[in-house]
Amino acid sequence: xxxxxxxxxxxxxxxxxxxxxxxxxxxxxxxxxxxxxxxxxxxxxxxxxxxxxxxxxxxxxxxxxxxxxxxxxxxxxxxxxxxxxxxxxxxxxxxxxxxxxxxxxxxxxxxxxxxxxxxxxxxxxxxxxxxxxxxxxxxxxxxxxxxxxxxxxxxxxxxxxxxxxxxxxxxxxxxxxxxxxxxxxxxxxxxxxxxxxxxxxxxxxxxxxxxxxxxxxxxxxxxxxxxxxxxxxxxxxxxxxxxxxxxxxxxxxxxxxxxxxxxxxxxxxxxxxxxxxxxxxxxxxxxxxxxxxxxxxxxxxxxxxxxxxxxxxxxxxxxxxxxxxxxxxxxxxxxxxxxxxxxxxxxxxxxxxxxxxxxxxxxxxxxxxxxxxxxxxxxxxxxxxxxxxxxxxxxxxxxxxxxxxxxxxxxxxxxxxxxxxxxxxxx
Amino acid sequence: xxxxxxxxxxxxxxxxxxxxxxxxxxxxxxxxxxxxxxxxxxxxxxxxxxxxxxxxxxxxxxxxxxxxxxxxxxxxxxxxxxxxxxxxxxxxxxxxxxxxxxxxxxxxxxxxxxxxxxxxxxxxxxxxxxxxxxxxxxxxxxxxxxxxxxxxxxxxxxxxxxxxxxxxxxxxxxxxxxxxxxxxxxxxxxxxxxxxxxxxxxxxxxxxxxxxxxxxxxxxxxxxxxxxxxxxxxxxxxxxxxxxxxxxxxxxxxxxxxxxxxxxxxxxxxxxxxxxxxxxxxxxxxxxxxxxxxxxxxxxxxxxxxxxxxxxxxxxxxxxxxxxxxxx
Amino acid sequence: xxxxxxxxxxxxxxxxxxxxxxxxxxxxxxxxxxxxxxxxxxxxxxxxxxxxxxxxxxxxxxxxxxxxxxxxxxxxxxxxxxxxxxxxxxxxxxxxxxxxxxxxxxxxxxxxxxxxxxxxxxxxxxxxxxxxxxxxxxxxxxxxxxxxxxxxxxxxxxxxxxxxxxxxxxxxxxxxxxxxxxxxxxxxxxxxxxxxxxxxxxxxxxxxxxxxxxxxxxxxxxxxxxxxxxxxxxxxxxxxxxxxxxxxxxxxxxxxxxxxxxxxxxxxxxxxxxxxxxxxxxxxxxxxxxxxxxxxxxxxxxxxxxxxxxxxxxxxxxxxxxxxxxxxxxxxxxxxxxxxxxxxxxxxxxxxxxxxxx
Lengths: 427, 328, 358
Description:
The structure holds three protein chains of three kinds.
Chain A: H1 2-13, E1 23-29, H2 36-57, E2 65-71, H3 76-86, E3 93-94, H4 99-112, E4 115-117, E5 135-136, H5 142-156, E6 165-171, H6 174-190, E7 193-199, H7 207-216, E8 220-224, H8 228-239, E9 247-249, H9 256-259, E10 270-273, H10 282-292, H11 307-330, H12 337-345, E11 348-349, H13 351-356, E12 366-367, E13 378-385, E14 390-393, E15 398-399, H14 402-419
Parallel strand pairs in A: 1-2, 3-4, 4-5, 6-7, 6-8, 8-9, 9-10
Antiparallel strand pairs in A: 10-13, 11-12, 13-14, 13-15
Helix pairs in contact in A: 2-10, 2-11, 3-4, 5-6, 11-12
Chain B: H1 3-36, H2 43-59, H3 65-72, H4 85-108, H5 116-138, H6 155-165, H7 173-195, H8 197-207, H9 209-214, H10 219-245, H11 254-265, H12 270-290, H13 292-295, H14 300-314
Chain C: H1 13-16, H2 23-43, H3 46-72, H4 80-97, H5 103-122, H6 130-150, E1 163-164, E2 169-170, E3 173-174, H7 182-205, H8 207-217, H9 219-224, H10 229-256, E4 258-259, H11 261-264, H12 267-280, H13 285-309, H14 314-335, H15 340-353
Antiparallel strand pairs in C: 1-4, 2-3
């Protein structure tokens, strides 16, 4: 008995040599802990898409995919443990879905030469590939999001929001503070008044902030929340009868989990997004057919088509297509960690490709280069229809204000390079 | 009337309501501490567990469905029924009584007469265990809790205050309901402890275990009863908070909100929990309103503790707590 | 028959008063040091260091610190997370303000800064006792976390509010930052742990330790016999916070490399270190090691067995982990309320008689 336990411990720790070639991906998921409600669909979407590739296509370029899932509970230390445990297994790209863990992993993955993809979160200035050689955050980042929100307000107001009051309700953490600098610069540029309302973790108690909103009567409220903070904020907004169409959340504050608890009154709540919403994509039908109905779904199979499920699936699609690009570039079906980084730096996503994959009009088209690891900052807005129980896109993809965002990215990445003695280069 | 004063009044009233919700959570702590000297770290997790059980029973979830599906390869998730809220609450209460009995028999009977910090640690172990167990039994996705409590702004107060002050106050219906329920709960608890035999036995045990034993009070029965009552209080708190924000892991963090209430009011006093809750609620909301914008907001978390700390410096046992008498 | 004092005569007071008077104990101690310093660094890899050894060593230092405060002096404190954050931010500011000075000196200075902060937040202990003090230290915890989040000077005005440890070397070997070799990080922490343990053991064996224990047992009686409660309590807070600050500095600089204060140094950290000393045994240096080992190693072991070995879904394994850890805590407490250190002491007592029954 003791030997069995010991061997199982050793087997678990020592990297097991795979019997035949596989493309290994990792899923640093949080199916438990304070953000489980959001982590579950993200992980399900990722795993289900990878399973679909195996079931429907026989893998990527004939090589089966393998997803190593590791439970982090959104805890940074467990994330480090998961990373150290799995990096020896040939994982091609890491996607931690947590800004805290991203900051951890940026230097570690740089030293170990493994790609890190932080799509729509993480360290925004990683867009500058000259400084962050192995970190990619396409298709959009938080500063694009902040600018995208202001763009939407400009659209709705005919291009002029001078004198309007905009309030930002944000999670009092590194994640929530991300958009502040961009919004402040944009406030000077467009003449609106910005007020900041931090909400302490976990955000279960937001009465004071929403009473203040009720008193100040801002024209628009932006939200940068995650986890229970989203549900409580939307519920409080409903309670104070704030007009929902003036309430815009970032893409992490715009999932079904966040709006459903508030019921029908949450109708009209808007959210930024960098990919398509809804159930009407051919690839989702394929997933239902090959994965869910075949009993191979990662979760209960009830999250297909939800916003976060689609996002996880989108990330899986981006990763698998990058692996395919690597296979085409090297001519081998086996992909090394170094190949993956080169492939991601040469990655291109076009509408034609997305149609082929069963995702017509699902996301923006973009091309990755050494200088630009973060896509073109194309952001759209979706709106919640409480009666139909679905999100609808209400705008096209529009680029963020690059004159503001690009400058801030250059500053921040230069500061990181200085602090860590990195010479920006492109080889 | 100047605007700021009117706003301050609105904040004051909302603070009182918030304080009631904190006091609800603190009550559970006080009950257990009074009767058995145990500081029950697991009270927050008990609130979460009871809320999850309530939702699970009402929605007809299959308990341990994830485990069963993983082992047997099936896909069962729901029984298919929907229970009305009252029935759900009664069944959940039965579950909490069973839990109280189990906790007593398995854990605390073996730890009689240990130091308070050991008992505290045992409740921490219990909290870990129940957290994992609750997630295993009912799943860790967020669940919506709807027992029919009204939510949203109270229109009558809005209109009346608008007519008087030219500014409609915002008082949430749910908070009003919570206040009424909390008042009823406290009234029932006080009546129970004053006028019934079991209640008197509970007070005897709280006073002196040995003496209560010597007059024939069954300690383990009283402790099971106290844990059940605390479980009921946890259920009420869980329902209130769960209605506001959905039933999920963060619900167990409401215990942290109750700790300053306990400090202020005293660990051993039921009226202390209420008064402490009100003071903390009003204090933190007014501080956030008045000084928060100057120093950047999000002060509620630490201000409650600092306020309680200041009170404690002048009155080390809390406002209503048992005076700490030390004999050398 | 080998664990005996018989035949082992001491000829000087120094020998008589040493920490390990029994020869077997001494040799065991030297053996453990030998293995730790000379054998493990050659066998270690990234995973073992980052997942097992570094957290274990760093939490041991924090546990030693909290044990001094809570186990020896009886002041329950839940502010450990906040004090670790002070250590981390202090070392960060020192590293970025004085990059030429050796980072090891910065770590010690960070401990000194934390000691100062600890004294400040320890002042209420002169008036407040028991669980009330525990909840009062939570004020320190929440306030410090809020302060590090709010005041941009602490994180050098970066846009995100996270701090990252720049790379630093010692004797030509990189010890902070991502290029650190596994064995280098391990040795740095091991040296700190050894020095901390020796320092703490000797402090608690001396008159200061006796003063702390007198305060813990009955502070009014202690005051009557001449122990100054102000001096004893504040020195306990200061020295305890020094260790906790050093552990926080190491946590940030050597182990994680980048922290976000709300998530890493939140209240969970405070409770975790408190659990470690209670499980390990209050008032025992060995207990700090044992408790830290228990709470660091057990979840990793369970994860590897359940997920790696048996292939269970990760969330089931995570839930079971919670249940097993909670269950084991309860079982340990019922079996031995005074913690693993007491189990160790009882074992040693039995060994001294073995093979005789009494």
